[in-house]
Design brief:
The protein has helices spanning 33-38, 74-80, 82-86, 116-122, 152-161, 226-232; strands spanning 23-31, 48-54, 56-57, 60-61, 97-104, 110-112, 129-136, 141-146, 168-172, 178-181, 187-189, 193-200, 206-209, 249-252, 257-262, 267-268, 276-282, 285-287, 290-292, 297-300, 308-311, 317-322. The chain is mainly beta. The protein is globular and about 60 Å long.
Amino acid sequence: MDIGRLPTMSGSEATNPLTFQPIFIERMWGGRRLEFEFHKKLPAQKRIGESWEIVDRPEAQSVVAVGSLCGKPLHELWTQEREEIFGDVQDTPRFPLLIKILDAQEKLSLQVHPPENVASKLGGEPKSEFWYVAAANPDAEVFVGFREPITRDMFEERLRDGTVVDYIHKIAVQAGDAVFLPAGRVHAIGAGNLLVEIQQNSDTTYRVFDWNRIDPATGTKRDLHIEQAIQCIDFADVQPKPIQSEGELLISHSLFEIRKWNLDEAREAAPLGQFAIVCCLTGNLSCAKAELAPGDFFLIPAHLGDRQLKPLAPDTSLLRVTIPKR
């Protein structure tokens, strides 16, 4: 990837998009698919389940990969260069999104994330998220919501007798599908999925079922969080559907807007004064002197002069992520 030189931000306009060093997270359900699908340089002999591409958290921090800002953490840019890089956006202590790629070689746990009104009581953070299926095995599926109406008491009983999965709604998925998971929706990613996940900046997850498997690192079952999860789950969430896109728009939400573009010709990434995050899905594309291959991300600063996304190969496609203005 040739991403050229990055801008000096002190009073001058940006001249190139920003790229960040991915953070690879080992997971028992992960694999090596990021290596051969997206040519990520993974650490040897590890099952990598997550590549955190853009993150601003105390325990994990995106760092600019090259150029004059090389080594600068995202949090420093968010707090010190807000207007220049991000434009007129909501004032939050940290960058409000966390963007990952997930390689589910095996199923993830059945889990839920807390809504805002419950998160504060439980000492966690609210979390809604979006999945885009970048690649999937022929039999890939996801588990979202319930197959039929169920009460809290029934759910707890099914957990005790080990049949809870029979009541979870399953959706067969293929590359190009997208799913929104509002906080409170019980869910799991099935085996054989490679997903782009765009979510609130949160890392609060409550597991309710983990397929009775043993963590090879500890030789024991992973902890469950049933008491907390039950306070979060929306038991009226029956047979939710994948996103039915309206043209390019996949979702417009108070947290983010996400569009899928098939890039046949040059297009402006976003109006001047608005930043955008771009993920290349297929083909290759460029912006200013930066190039992206599949699985690569860059952040286009709000005041970047050259904002044109240009296809460099046939069948180039991308996700474009923006957040609402203040």
